[in-house]
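User: Sequence recovery, please. Input:
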């Protein structure tokens, strides 16, 4: 009896594996698409669109699941799950470009979506809290000299961006007036604006505008435009990048038993809606953040980390903020110990091609990224 040896290949460089078995090197790059698979959920198709998509998928050797009544036309809309190799999805996209009912646009999106992800350099966003009551380091950097020294330390340690906030948005915290935020922010912005890219963590349109005028480069709105109706207009007026975060509720109530039916889908669709709103205002330079700890249970937070790649199809860079948060379940531990476990979770996110990590300990994460980039070579 022949001793067949089988090994499942996971998380591999497919092109490299093809070359190792002696495959034609001149064709290996294109052939790799035949061995990498995707399952794509497509929302709200009409029965005609869903039927055409399903038949097109079958003709390409892939498959598509639809609502059972699509074939009878007894439903107005159906979500669909398209599954196949990258090569098959590209073929489907090309065929849909010649179909009616607006499917040309879907075909173009599938072609874009089927591009294999590139391992890009993950950027480090260092956290500088100018607050008295932040959950991790409230009071540590709440005067100018302390803030200045810590900012310079994070730059030296390898931060790409410094995110400065003067209002804690931890659970059950109260709002801080724009005037009080600006008293702390403006001197630090003036000191740092020519030294590194500055992000301002604020929900206030007034704070955002005055910070931009003082030299800040990015606005990080943890409410995702929900707190201040004027925020989107300020971002559009000054044409600066904005970080749009998902948050269920406000800091005062967001952790009062948050409930989701499907946490990833609901966050995905909510951010998609916010992106459309931003674009309607003329805002295109966007970073998205699923909002770890902002109206989520511990289980929700872990699900976000495990499935962070599912936010990439929204078409914008993804930021993740895990640092020292309650999902670690380490309330009694010192900050450096929390930073070690934060880095462990961020390693998973970096391997899943997250674009930005927002952290307190820049030094340990710079070393982590350097190691992972060596690992990926």
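Assistant: Recovered sequence (377 residues):
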């Amino acid at each position: 009896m022949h001793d067949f040896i089988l090994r499942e290949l996971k998380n591999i460089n497919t092109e490299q594996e093809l070359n190792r078995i002696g495959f034609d090197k001149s064709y290996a790059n294109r052939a790799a698409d035949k061995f990498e698979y995707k399952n794509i959920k497509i929302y709200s198709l009409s029965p005609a669109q869903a039927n055409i998509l399903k038949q097109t998928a079958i003709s390409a050797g892939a498959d598509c699941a639809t609502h059972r009544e699509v074939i009878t036309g007894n439903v107005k809309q159906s979500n669909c799950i398209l599954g196949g190799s990258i090569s098959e999805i590209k073929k489907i996209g090309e065929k849909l470009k010649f179909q009616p009912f607006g499917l040309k646009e879907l075909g173009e999106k599938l072609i874009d979506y089927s591009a294999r992800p590139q391992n890009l350099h993950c950027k480090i966003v260092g956290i500088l809290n100018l607050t008295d009551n932040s959950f991790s380091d409230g009071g540590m950097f709440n005067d100018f000299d302390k803030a200045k020294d810590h900012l310079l330390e994070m730059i030296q340690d390898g931060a790409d961006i410094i995110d400065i906030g003067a209002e804690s948005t931890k659970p059950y915290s109260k709002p801080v007036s724009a005037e009080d935020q600006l008293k702390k922010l403006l001197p630090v912005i003036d000191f740092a604006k020519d030294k590194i890219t500055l992000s301002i963590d604020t929900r206030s349109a007034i704070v955002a505008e005055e910070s931009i005028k003082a030299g800040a480069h990015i606005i990080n709105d943890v409410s995702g435009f929900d707190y201040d109706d004027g925020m989107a207009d300020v971002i559009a007026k000054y044409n600066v990048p904005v970080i749009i975060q998902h948050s269920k509720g406000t800091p005062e109530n967001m952790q009062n038993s948050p409930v989701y039916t499907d946490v990833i889908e609901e966050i995905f669709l909510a951010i998609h809606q916010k992106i459309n709103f931003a674009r309607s205002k003329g805002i295109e330079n966007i970073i998205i953040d699923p909002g770890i700890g902002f109206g989520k249970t511990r289980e929700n937070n872990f699900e976000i980390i495990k499935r962070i790649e599912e936010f990439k199809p929204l078409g914008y860079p993804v930021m993740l903020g895990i640092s020292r948060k309650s999902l670690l379940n380490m309330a009694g531990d010192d900050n450096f110990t929390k930073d070690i476990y934060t880095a462990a979770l961020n390693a998973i996110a970096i391997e899943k091609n997250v674009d930005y990590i927002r952290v307190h300990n820049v030094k340990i994460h710079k070393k982590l990224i350097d190691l992972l980039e060596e690992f990926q070579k």
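The chain has two domains: 35-113, 123-376.
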